[in-house]
Specification:
The protein contains 2 helices and no strands. It is an all-alpha fold and about 220 residues long. It has one domain. Helix 1 packs antiparallel against helix 2. The two termini are about 30 Å apart. Keywords: Membrane, Transmembrane, Transmembrane helix.
């Protein structure tokens, strides 16, 4: 067996040749990463947040969200509430009142009359029921036509202008904002990333590869 001094010397030689270069390389990479983060990535992130993201968020809020909220509140919710309160609800109330009147003043007396004059009154009952159904059908047809007119008027006076306004808002706010975002990304983030790769990451990678080659640590 080799003496302990020889084993210790061999271990120190291995540590000097293998472990120390790897440790130096690791410290170099850690220091380069810290410097890169401190002097490049962190200032670049703050600059992007201050000069790109915050202005774009402000533009999106004031040029997109606020106009769309105003359009939804003044062109959709309020007109629909007005139409429901002024047009649909009175028509529905009128239909309910008419049906209730027909039931109380026509159907109930006819049923009572049938109870009293069951036999001779069958013909009159049939005629009365036919007249009642015809009257109810006429009332429902009128209500249906009135509802159709109301809906067509709502479409012509409210829904179509709202759709045109939303399309205009999309064309003149959302689409330009999207193009501005793409242009800002293309002219800020993409050149910064290319510069970072060409000026920092590639030299660090080449220096690391050269150092490993000089230390014969590459496979």
């Amino acid at each position: 067996m080799p003496p302990p001094a020889l084993v210790a010397a061999f271990a120190r030689g291995v540590a000097l040749v293998v472990v120390l270069p790897v440790r130096l390389l690791w410290e170099l990479l850690v220091g380069a990463g810290r410097l890169l983060h401190r002097w490049l990535l962190s200032p670049l992130g703050r600059a992007l947040r201050a000069w790109v993201l915050r202005p774009l968020a402000w533009l999106a809020y004031h040029l997109l969200w606020v106009p769309l909220a105003w359009l939804a509140r003044h062109l959709v919710r309020r007109p629909l509430s007005w139409a429901l309160r002024t047009l649909v609800r009175p028509v529905a109330r009128l239909v309910v009142v008419a049906v209730d009147w027909l039931i109380r003043h026509l159907l109930v007396p006819l049923v009572r009359l049938v109870g009293r004059l069951f036999g001779p009154a069958l013909t009159a009952l049939g005629r009365g029921l036919w007249w009642l159904l015809r009257l109810a059908w006429t009332a429902l047809s009128y209500a249906w036509r009135l509802a159709g007119r109301i809906l067509r008027a709502l479409h012509r006076l409210l829904l179509r202008p709202v759709g045109l306004a939303l399309r205009w808002a999309w064309r003149h706010t959302v689409a330009p904002l999207g193009r501005a975002l793409r242009a800002a990304w293309r002219h800020t983030v993409t050149p910064a990333a290319r510069w970072l790769n060409a000026s920092v990451l590639t030299p660090v990678r080449e220096a690391t590869r050269a150092l490993l080659a000089a230390l014969n640590l590459r496979p």
